[in-house]
Design a protein that fits this description.
400 residues; alpha/beta; Rossmann fold; 9-stranded mixed beta sheet; 17 helices; 9 strands; 44% helix; globular; binds S-adenosylmethionine
């Protein structure tokens, strides 16, 4: 361990292995809590216990560690859908600056993909860095893989909670991240879906605190945006009734207001950062994504009491729901066009199954809906509003 690296930590770790620092957190309790607080239309996680979560994560690392490293290390904006900002001139400049300075940098909420670290290390493999995450077990597994495949790099690992960083004030010139604040933000139940930046004050102020004056936080974070035309929304409403047969004008207006109310820019500025760059990359939601978003929004905000039928309606195409209601047998459902459209998405070998009752098909579809794996072939209605999922790159400076 170099003294240079150890000097950033302000308290003793629960365990230290070489230059790796492990601080105990409540991560495992949080995973357990998530297991018991799922919404009814998304109540199947790939794991059913904490033990399984860790085992799945370990096998994920085993399968994907090298691919993930290579994808980032050799990636371009064209080959990296999650990093369209690789071509952004200010990003190229600041990553070259970090690489050129050669000073220790810290990546947060790194997971085994290690956030922005591969993009910096490809410019200068000798820069020392810490990659960190609240998930201690993942960081320990990552250490094994670093040892095995990338021993030539000066990558240390650490485990701590970004809401309480065990790091001295003004000690780092650069902190980097991909989805770091979005992931570690403490959301209240009501805002699990909407406002990625809501509740992020603590994490942002921790990052600000540990940075030196004149230092930078370079991060990519997620948020939402919307386009809307109130007159068109009302016109659509008066012609077609509720949106998708489910949502009222008030609910739509409430979504729009919430989306516009909170922004990363405001949250970063409130902490004292100077925003040198905010570059947004928009993905316009398809109709099925929009429906799922509206479901989660109204569900978590307790805006309506959902019945199973309404949830199914929300997740299947309107045509398919109508066909299911009309059909007298399983075969009638299986052979209708609306089912074939959904079926190709589901990808299950339903057609080969013999002796299915109508209720079997409905139950099967309902299972797919609940597992979150169904998305029908939705047409895009002109509803007067669009929601966008946004990935935004920020270059933030702590003033001199
Ligand atoms: C979406 S991943 C981040 C992606 C990753 N940076 C990358 O480059 O692919 C979210 C990570 O945040 C971590 N995380 C969640 N809450 C955290 C917290 N409070 N402090 C630190 N890490 C946290 C999770 O363990 C998870 O590994």
């Amino acid at each position: 361990m170099s003294i240079h690296q150890a000097a950033i930590f302000n308290r003793n770790p629960d365990e230290m292995v070489g230059s790796d620092y492990f601080y105990r957190t409540n991560f495992d309790e949080t995973i357990n809590k998530i297991l018991f607080s799922l919404n009814p239309a998304n109540n199947k996680l790939p794991y059913s216990s904490l033990q399984e979560y860790h085992e799945l994560k370990d096998s994920d690392i085993k399968r994907n560690f090298l691919d993930s490293w290579n994808q980032r290390f050799y990636g371009t904006a064209q080959t990296s859908p999650y990093a369209p900002w690789l071509d952004e001139p200010r990003f190229r400049e600041i990553s070259a600056q970090i690489a050129g300075d050669g000073e220790l940098f810290l990546d947060i909420a790194s997971d085994f993909s290690m956030g922005m670290a591969p993009y910096i290390l490809r410019l200068n493999p000798d820069v020392p860095c810490y990659v960190s995450d609240i998930d201690e077990r993942t960081m320990r597994t990552l250490r094994e893989y670093l040892q095995k495949y990338l021993p030539e790099y000066k990558i240390s690992v650490a485990s701590f909670d970004n809401n309480d960083m065990p790091i001295h004030d003004n000690s780092l010139k650069y902190v980097t991240s991909i989805d770091g604040v979005t992931s570690s933000t403490q959301k209240s139940d009501e805002y699990t879906v909407m406002s990625y930046c809501l509740g992020s004050e603590k994490v942002i102020s921790e990052i600000y605190r540990i940075l030196k004056h004149g230092g930078y936080f370079i991060t990519c974070e997620q948020s939402f945006d919307c386009d809307y035309d109130l007159r068109e929304i009302y016109e659509n409403y008066s012609v077609h009734g509720k949106l998708f047969g489910i949502y009222t004008c008030d609910e739509i207006q409430s979504v729009i207001e919430d989306i516009l109310k909170y922004s990363w820019k405001d949250a970063f500025e409130a902490a004292g950062f100077e925003i040198e760059l905010e570059k947004k990359y928009h993905h316009r939601y398809s109709e099925s994504e929009l429906k799922q978003f509206m479901f989660r929004y109204t569900y978590y905000n307790k805006l309506r009491k959902w019945t199973d039928t309404e949830i199914a309606l929300n997740y299947l195409t309107t045509e398919l729901v109508e066909e299911i209601c009309r059909a007298k047998s399983a075969n009638e459902i299986l052979s209708c066009k609306a089912f074939t459209n959904a079926w190709t998405m589901i990808g299950a070998n339903v057609a080969d199954r013999k002796n299915l009752e109508k209720t079997d098909v409905v139950n099967l579809l309902w299972e797919y809906v609940k597992s979150g794996s169904t998305s029908g072939n939705f047409k895009h209605e002109n509803t007067g509003f669009d929601i966008y999922h946004v990935n935004a790159l920020y270059v933030l400076k702590k003033p001199e």
